[in-house]
Amino acid sequence: MSELIKETEGNLLKLTLNRPDQMNAMSAGLISDLTEAITDVTANRSARAIMITGSGRGFCAGADLQGNGLAGRREVIEGQMMAGINRLILAVREVPVPVVIALNGAAAGAGCGLALSGDIMIAARSAKLLTAFSRIGAVLDGGMSWSLVHKLGTARAAAMAMFGDQKIDAETAKSWGLVWEVVDDEKLPAEATILAQRLADGPSVALGLIKRQIAFAQGNGIADALRFEAACQGQAFQTDDFMEGVKAFQENRLAEFKGK
């Protein structure tokens, strides 16, 4: 059984973590397969949006701690993180298309980091976010030292990370700005697909540039952000999709974007 299910629906790539018996805990193979699928989109523009979800009742329980998991790799964990989970999080952050996270259940540890690395998250009503690291004497990874601070501020980030046992339910995550929309569990697959497909049908270059603008703004001041906006707008105005968007607006119809 493949640990990662890849499905292509038109210009949308759907990736499903597929280790349901282990709550989709991330093995080295799963991390590698997921990273490869995402970097292929960057290299080949093989999709115009990506949706990531989990199989079974959980999104992702984090790193696989069973057997010869992290506990058996104490002396080499830093290098393995740099080559594994860190590459994955950067791939999600840097892929030039929108990434929708369909949070179908609990996301803990590095699984929570993966969920927070996406651009837009839609959550099932029963879904939960949990840091969990401090419970085993570990520290944040999966990009959470960055994402929690930038998305929540230091007070909530510190409490979530240090206590480690607070399960943030979907409605709370939405009120904190981590989740865009909460839907009934049985509606999540369809609703998430509709949301992701809407992005896949959008002006792909512009959406990729918007993603870069948001990332840039999180580490720069207003003056630099304004300069970057101008540079990005210069690129967007050169696209066929911009011309189609303007024409559709003038003709009072929906634009038919081609992603270029």
Give a description of the structure.
There is one protein chain. The protein is an alpha/beta fold and 260 residues long. It has helices spanning 28-44, 77-83, 85-94, 110-117, 144-152, 154-163, 170-175, 188-200, 204-217, 222-236, 240-250; strands spanning 4-9, 12-17, 49-54, 58-60, 99-103, 106-108, 120-124, 128-130, 168-169, 181-183. The chain folds into 2 domains: 4-200, Alpha-Beta Complex (2-enoyl-CoA Hydratase, Chain A, domain 1), CATH 3.90.226; 204-250, Orthogonal Bundle (Lyase 2-enoyl-coa Hydratase, Chain  A, domain 2). It is globular and about 60 Å long. The mean pLDDT is 93. Helix 1 (28-44) packs parallel to helix 3. The longest helix has 17 residues, at 28-44. The strands form 2 sheets. The chain has a 6-stranded mixed beta sheet with strand order 1-2-3-5-7-10, with helices on both faces. A 4-stranded mixed beta sheet has the order 4-6-8-9.
Give the strand tally.
10
Shape, principal axes of CA atoms? globular
Q: What percentage of residues falls in helices of 4 or more residues?
A: 40-55%
Separate helix tally: 11
What strand line-up does the widest sheet have? 1-2-3-5-7-10
The radius of gyration is 19 Å
- What is the straight-line distance between the termini? 37 Å
Strand content: 15-25%
In short:
The chain is an alpha/beta fold and 260 residues long. The protein folds into two domains: 4-200, Alpha-Beta Complex (2-enoyl-CoA Hydratase, Chain A, domain 1), CATH 3.90.226.10; 204-250, Lyase 2-enoyl-coa Hydratase, Chain  A, domain 2, CATH 1.10.12. 46% of the residues lie in helices and 16% in strands.
